Amino acid sequence: MEKLKAFMKEVFCKAILFLIISVSAFSGQYKDALVNRMRDFRSSVFANVSKGNDFEQKEALRKMEKEWDKELNIVYQKIMKIANPVTKNKLRNAQRAWIKFRNSEIENSYYVNNPDGGSMGVLFSLYTAAKLTEERTVYLAEIYDCLLYTSPS
Fold this sequence. Notes:
mainly alpha; 5 helices; 0% strand; elongated
């Protein structure tokens, strides 16, 4: 009986170890690929941008925000395809709240960082839009990875 208990304990420990390794091997795959892809995109967008050229910087930030927004919509739709109805509803409500927050932050960044007006306010607001959209997209990618590798198939 002791041999059986020892054997079962060993099998159980190996099974737990296998599950931990399996989950860690798969978790973050979508997010990691997204971050790598966007790092490469960022490098290409900012490759020829002059530091003192506001116009080029603004155009690069617009491209970054547009690409992050495209990725955000892709991962959002991926989540909505696999999530249960309760999660879908909560995510939809959270996303609507986040959009309001983002828009408010963009507007605030223009005025708070640029109280005297001028073209720098636009640069601040474009940076804020790109940064917040990037953060939200990565967050949604983490949710997607979690759902993808923990939900029953």
